[in-house]
Amino acid sequence: QDTFIEDQRQALTERTPSRPSSRPSSRPPSLVEQEKQRSLERHRQEAAALQRQQAAHAEEKRRKEKEWDVKERELTDREVLLHVKEEEMRRRHKELEEAQQALQGRKEDYQRDLERLRDAQRRLEREKEQMQREVERVEQLREVE
């Protein structure tokens, strides 16, 4: 970019030769000289406009790069946060599975204990009925005597 501007300036200086010193200063500039001056001024304005455009482009590029950096940092932060949340979810899921397994084990123990109690209750009922029959038999034997 800088070399382009320097090339433009060099071309402008080559196109407009310096004033010949032999010409008297009181003489009005010729039409050709005036045209050269206007052309030179136009080229200067174009070069200045080009410089402004290049500066604006460079500023826009810096602004876009800064935006990109900010977005990239935000994305990185979000990825880190997501990773932390995923790890937390995995940890909680593992804890939940362990708790479910523990509850399932306790449920199975409870069901085994319940079945043992029912078996014991049935045995007691049978023994009670048997004792009742024994008592009735003993009473009948007493009545007979």
From TrEMBL:
InterPro entries named among the record's database cross-references: Rho_GEF (IPR051632)
Biased composition range(s): Low complexity: 18-30, 47-56
Region (Disordered): 1-69, 86-112, 125-145
Compositional bias ranges of the Basic and acidic residues kind: 33-46, 57-69, 86-97
N-terminal signal peptide: none
Regions that span the bilayer: none
Listed PANTHER family: A-KINASE ANCHOR PROTEIN 13, AGAP007712-PA
Protein name from the UniProt record: Uncharacterized protein
Annotated source species: Cirrhinus mrigala
Lineage of the organism: Eukaryota, Metazoa, Chordata, Craniata, Vertebrata
